[in-house]
Amino acid sequence: MATHRNTQIGRAFRLAVEQYAEAGVDVAAAFRRLRRIAVSLHCWQGDDVAGFEGTGGDLGGGLAVTGNHPGKARTPDQLRADLDQALALIPGTHRLNLHASYAETGGRRVDRADLEPRHFRGWIDWAAARGMGMDFNPTFFAHPKAADGFTLAHPDRGIRRYWVGHGIACRTIGASIGRALGTPCITNFWIPDGFKDTPVDRFGPRVRLTESLDEIFARRISPALNRDAVESKLFGIGSESYVAGSHEYYLGYAIRRQKLLCLDAGHFHPTEGIADKISSILQWLPEILLHVSRGVRWDSDHVVTLTDELQAIAQEILRHRLEGRVHLGLDFFDASINRVAAWVIGTRCLLKALLMGLLEPTERLRSLEKAGDYTSRLALLEEQRTLPLGAVWDQYCLESGVPPREAWLGEVLRYEREVLSRR
Ligand code: RNT
Ligand code: ZN
């Protein structure tokens, strides 16, 4: 069965290569470029953003995970096993994106401001053994000191100071991750701070936020070890009327302080895409981070699928060869389906969109545009959409040693039967 399928894929691939060559596209070169792109897989899809602090409390921060599909990871070892299963079905070598709330403290309660690199040894060793890099996130939610919806912009100095301490601890952890793995760790700061209803003072929280961030970032850390990103948001559940860390706020902050700006695809108005922002922001910043996500009517963090918006993001990165300046992270959490499948679907879709972008006859399209031939530009853009991407993707999967087409699903269902359903 698999042999027949693989022979069929081989034949289809050879024909596809011919077709792409006629369009002026080198498939082998596309594979080489795709292989070098690492996507940061977010740990939090595996356990509904619960983490291992054992508080079992409210997620808070306006984050919501819906669904009760059985088998969610409850221990670091389970989460790592689930990630291993997902990674075995995703072509390429990728990265792990970890939240501070996934610390391993050996059953002891360790305050978030007191977290140290050693609490992440298990994760670092796991990543090192797989040749993976890691990224990191301070956790400014699911905590009594964040219960009223404010952290770094809190009016209370003591609470602000506590969260500044957490931020500082996380940069140290990020640097030690970067040193251990030999690739810089991107430490991404997202805070929930905002108001449910119309505020009177929109100014004060932003002044406080700047002060807190500046304190956190005061220590210079080599960008070879750690790079800081700041993530904006339009609104959240319970912060519908005002979010201190808005897009304009962080765009300004990032440019002024030379931080990475993190654009989450779900954090803008429902019809506002992030693809067009990439080339704008990169005029002013060396690097950005993307949280590739899919909002459905709101910032719902649905599993990423092969949408036009996803393709537009991939095109923007690849057409201008920005792979070195745009870091790719995933950010979605769906508990209504198999969580391992969610990782696999989302990551494979992102890689498929990237492959699609790499198979575009960009040079030809560019010269048509330069010549003012917009008719041919539109015609070719539409024609190339239906070139045999699938045949090339299948071959890419085979060459990467992962199941092509929907063959990966059988593996996930077996894992569900043998592992997840017994938890
Ligand atoms: C929240 C942000 C943030 C979180 C993760 C869990 O709106 O998107 O990135 O999803 O930190
Ligand atoms: Zn995000």
Kindly describe this structure.
This protein is of the alpha/beta class and 423 residues long. It folds into 2 domains: 1-25 and 366-423, no CATH class; 35-358, Alpha-Beta Barrel (TIM Barrel), CATH 3.20.20.150. Helices cover 43% and strands 12% of the residues. An 8-stranded parallel β-sheet has the order 3-2-1-12-9-8-6-4. The longest helix is centred in the middle third of the chain and has 25 residues, at 157-181. The structure holds L-rhamnitol and zinc ion (ZN). Residues 190, 231, 264, 291, 331 line the site of zinc ion.
Mean pLDDT: 97
The separation of the N and C termini measures 32 Å
Please estimate the helix content.
40-55%
What ligands can be seen in this structure? Answer: L-rhamnitol, zinc ion
Given the structure, what is the number of helices?
A: 14
Largest sheet, in brief, is: 8 strands, parallel
Structural class: alpha/beta
Under CATH, the homologous superfamily of the largest domain reads Divalent-metal-dependent TIM barrel enzymes
CATH topology of the largest domain: TIM Barrel
Order of neighbouring strands in the sheet with most strands: 3-2-1-12-9-8-6-4
Question: Architecture of the largest domain in CATH?
Answer: Alpha-Beta Barrel
SSE order, one letter for each helix or strand: HHEHEHEHEEHEEHEHEEEHEHHHHH
Q: Bin the strand percentage.
A: 5-15%
How many domains make up the coordinates? 2
